[in-house]
Design brief:
CATH class of the largest domain: Alpha Beta
Helix content: 10-25%
Number of helices: 9
Structural class: alpha+beta
Radius of gyration: 25 Å
Number of strands: 21
Number of domains: 2
Strand order of the largest sheet: 6-7-8-3-9-10
Shape: elongated
Length: 363
């Protein structure tokens, strides 16, 4: 296994710059997930690490050795693609063995590696089958097994679960997490699904428009997002955002005033925020609880009943959209007005301009 470092990596396609100076360190044995919306540059970055595309400037360093201009074959990495990329005319055994046969490895050693990978991925009973005889989950395990047999320095995954149905995605997330624990391998995983990122990663790298917005452990990003973009991307359902103004309440204590709502007291000094400063209040749906008279009125538009959880979607008097997540089932119906309030100490505050930096995170 190996460490991975990226130093000021940039990538341009003609006049279009896709990556704007990426600096990143992934430690040996770490499961790092690159996450972000479509077009943010995460798959491009993975291809630069793999050596499938060439960097415009900057360096790629693997295990202390600069490989920026080394070919993909020379880097000792293995990549698992979204579309599996299996050979349809070959059996599972042949697909697993193919890459090793091209290295002139002895047949006995090839068989040993193939059977070892097949056992790890519960493919032993399927070695004689061809890809068309396999389910989507089985095909993905074969693609992962082909990477395992190569015993690479680093595993690279490019949205490997996106073609699977919801139930299979959950199953494969668990299997990949177990595999990482068993192999103690360095893995870099690309996804647009923040649930995959939260449940699998040791470290999450949030990308937006070719730049890193924040790097950290999953719960660190959830609890203390660096800016509004990260706050809205990490967490499901997404964080609620409400326009507000800063004011001064009793004893000179700062308050946040949202239009038509009871004010929120802040634990911020006046040297950090001035009175009449426009801000954005962030509250996660699960941090809104049923309120009483005087709390926030929510005009209910839609109620989603999931059995173990209910999502209540509605509008505040200002017209701002708000979602409340309730445990279990609810009798709330569209058209009702209910009272809600944020749990004390769970309010986030963001700038309204520029990078929309977090001013306060108190989950």
């Amino acid at each position: 296994m190996a460490d991975l470092s990226l130093r000021a990596v940039r990538k341009s396609f003609g006049q279009v710059r896709t990556l704007h100076g990426i600096d990143l360190d992934v430690r040996d044995g770490e499961f790092a997930v690159l996450v972000g919306p479509s077009g943010c540059g995460k798959s491009t970055l993975l291809r630069l690490i793999a050596g499938l595309d060439e960097v415009t400037s900057g360096d790629v360093v693997i295990d202390g050795q600069t490989v920026t201009h080394a070919s993909a074959a020379q880097r000792g990495l293995a990549m698992v693609f979204q579309n599996y990329a299996l050979y349809p005319h070959m059996t599972v055994f042949q697909n697993l063995a193919f890459g090793l046969e091209n290295t002139s490895m002895p047949a006995a050693q090839i068989r040993q590696r193939v059977h070892q990978a097949a056992e790890q991925l519960q493919l032993s009973a399927l070695l004689a089958r061809k890809p068309r005889q396999l389910s989507g989950g089985q095909r993905q395990r074969v693609a992962i097994g082909r990477a395992i047999t190569r015993q690479p320095k680093i595993f690279l995954f490019d949205e490997p679960l996106s073609n699977l149905d919801a139930e299979l995605r959950v199953q494969m997330r668990i299997e990949l997490s177990k595999l990482h624990k068993d192999l103690r391998a360095t893995m870099v995983y690309v996804t647009h699904d923040q649930v995959e990122a939260m449940t699998m990663a040791d470290k999450i790298i949030v990308l937006r428009e070719g730049r890193i917005e924040q790097v950290g452990k999953p719960l660190d990003l959830y609890n203390a997002p660096a800016n509004r973009f990260v706050a809205g991307f990490i967490g499901s359902p997404r964080m609620n955002f409400i326009p507000a103004m800063v004011g001064v309440g009793q004893a000179g204590r700062l308050q946040v005033h949202c239009e038509g709502l009871a004010p929120l007291a802040l634990n911020l000094s006046q040297d950090r925020l001035a009175q009449a400063t426009p801000v954005t209040v962030g509250i996660r749906p699960e941090h809104l609880v049923p309120g009483a008279d005087g709390d926030w009125p929510l005009q209910v538009d839609v109620v989603e009943q999931l059995g173990n959880t209910s999502f209540v979607h509605g509008r505040l008097p200002s017209g701002a959209q708000l979602t409340q997540a309730l445990s279990g089932q609810t009798g709330i119906a569209p058209g009702q007005t209910v009272r809600v309030r944020p749990i004390d100490g769970t309010v986030h505050l963001f700038e309204t301009t520029g990078s929309e930096e977090a001013l306060m995170s108190t989950p």
